[in-house]
Amino acid sequence: MLKPGDKAPGFELPDADMEIVRLDDYSPGRNVVLYFYVRDDTPGCTAEAIEFSDLEAEFAALDCVVLGVSRDDCISHGVFRDKHGISVRLLADKECLSCRVYEVLVEREVDGVMRTGVQRSTFVIDRQGIVRHALYGVAAKGHAEEVLNLVKEL
Q1: In b/e form, how buried is each residue of 59-89, taking b as 16+ CB within 10 angstroms?
Q2: Is residue 109 part of a domain?
Q3: Which of 30, 104, 115, 119 has an alpha carbon within 20 to 30 A of 133's alpha carbon?
Q4: pLDDT score, position 107
């Protein structure tokens, strides 16, 4: 698992509009909240994305960008974004490359079959590209406010 003080792994992922987003686009210079979620349009993931979107201006005032990542594709992200008015950028990690390097994949038993899924996790990355907070297994509700308070401490 990643921990505070680790160099944040780079990534290069498409967003809902199929534009490539890289960690290097923001670092050095801006703080980044990178949150991993299970799937578009599920109750918990929808609540989390809406909460981050509702606080986006407050994150921006702290020179911080919020990026959400799931294994859904760009089209799914676009539909999800438009349906719920989500304003944070949603990144598609279909190949699980970022999920692996950020160590958010977990094995779970579903109907007697072991499946790999995403553990809801958030990383606060500072302007120099260093992980300041690595939060694994978080609850969706109220999480955005909690993360905002962590960013305020940077």
Answers
A1: beeeebbbbbbbbbebebbbebbeebebebb
A2: yes
A3: 115
A4: 86
Q: What is the three-state SS of 45-84?
A: HHHHHHHHHHCHHHHHHCCEEEEEEECCCHHHHHHHHHHH
How many separate domains does the chain show?
Answer: 1
Domain range for 101 is: 12-152
Mean pLDDT of 70-81: 96
DSSP state of 137: S
- Give the chain's mean pLDDT: 94
CATH of the domain at 67: 3.40.30.10
Res 111: pLDDT: 80
Q: Angle at CA 130, nearest 5°, toward 22 and 107?
A: 75
Mark whether 45 is an active-site residue: yes
Task: Tell me, yes or no, whether 7 lies in a domain.
Answer: no
Query: What predicted TM-score, i.e. pTM, was given to this entire model?
Result: 0.93
> Which tokens in the block code for residue 145?
């406010």
